[in-house]
């Protein structure tokens, strides 16, 4: 079997959540230790790793970032190399992202690049966010590991393998997590008039939250309010004293984000009054938008147009979030969508990316970095 496929399958079997990527970090360190070490310096930060490859005649330092965490999803692919970690899965392609990053370290460790290259294996992209604290550590403790330009990719199920899709400017949304706790009064299912039922309050709240995008956000802006999880109550014949909603907010600008939050708070105040309950709102972690530097995105697209068997696509912005946005806020660079040709989408329990994407993107990114 091809080495990259084998690595991807081994990583696929050990998904871990944000800042718990202990086995993943050990696997990555063990693999990197097998490459020639002459040009490498390896540093760990939290559950992440930073690998610097010293260039032969550098005029700048090029950064490449991969995320390394998995998601709390029970895998349903039925693949022989399915997750061995119950309830966790690499359902957002980070196993593929890591494999490509390892291929880059291997290529540059074997054939020295002209420029310095730093590869960042970053924890906790899905939450609570590893990019911002990793960047703060780099700035305060290891400025020698900061790049002049930085790039990253994300698999895209909807595109064929060989597609490089990106755009100059805004690519991914601002995000904010959303956690809402409702507290009422529980009691016997047969005495609803003596209770404050939080299942009913939460159900009404969800429906009202869905009016924010249709009735409060300027129709010329884009926004998403998704409640991905609702929990309430304990058993079938007890009226629920507590309920909890967990969701995410996405917008393409800061003023739409402020407006969505203002309306969430107003609607929650209304639910408190009408259902006689107490509500607390926690916005969890927020990600800065992914804003591609114009020159970096255009040179990536131009390189893709010249690369054999590659389809360069100038795509629209998407409502996905990515904490790589924190790197791009401070360092010029770009992220691209890498075609993965699969039936199921990101964050689905049956997603199974086409493994041909590994070799294609490892070659593409290596040659792109060598061209800089
Ligand atoms: C590429 C991707 O799917 N990223 C995640 C980032 C999650 C951010 C945060 N935990 C949130 O849910 O707001 C995404 O869901 O877009």
TrEMBL record:
Q: Name one Pfam family in it.
A: M20_dimer
Write out the residues that bind Mn(2+). 92, 94, 126, 154, 347
Residues in the signal sequence: none
How, per the record, is the cofactor bound?
Answer: The Mn(2+) ion enhances activity.
Q: GO: which molecular function terms? A: metal ion binding; N-acetyldiaminopimelate deacetylase activity
On the tree of life, the source organism's domain of life is Bacteria
Please list the GO biological process terms of this entry: diaminopimelate biosynthetic process; lysine biosynthetic process via diaminopimelate
Listed pathway(s):
Amino-acid biosynthesis; L-lysine biosynthesis via DAP pathway; LL-2,6-diaminopimelate from (S)-tetrahydrodipicolinate (acetylase route): step 3/3
Record carries keyword Glycoprotein: no
Kind of enzyme, top EC level?
hydrolase
Task: Please name the catalytic residues of this protein.
Answer: 67, 126 (proton acceptor)
| Chemical reaction(s) catalysed | N-acetyl-(2S,6S)-2,6-diaminopimelate + H2O = (2S,6S)-2,6-diaminopimelate + acetate
Q: Which UniProt keywords apply?
A: Amino-acid biosynthesis, Diaminopimelate biosynthesis, Hydrolase, Lysine biosynthesis, Manganese, Metal-binding
- EC numbers, comma separated: 3.5.1.47
The name of this protein is: N-acetyldiaminopimelate deacetylase
This protein's species is: Lysinibacillus telephonicus
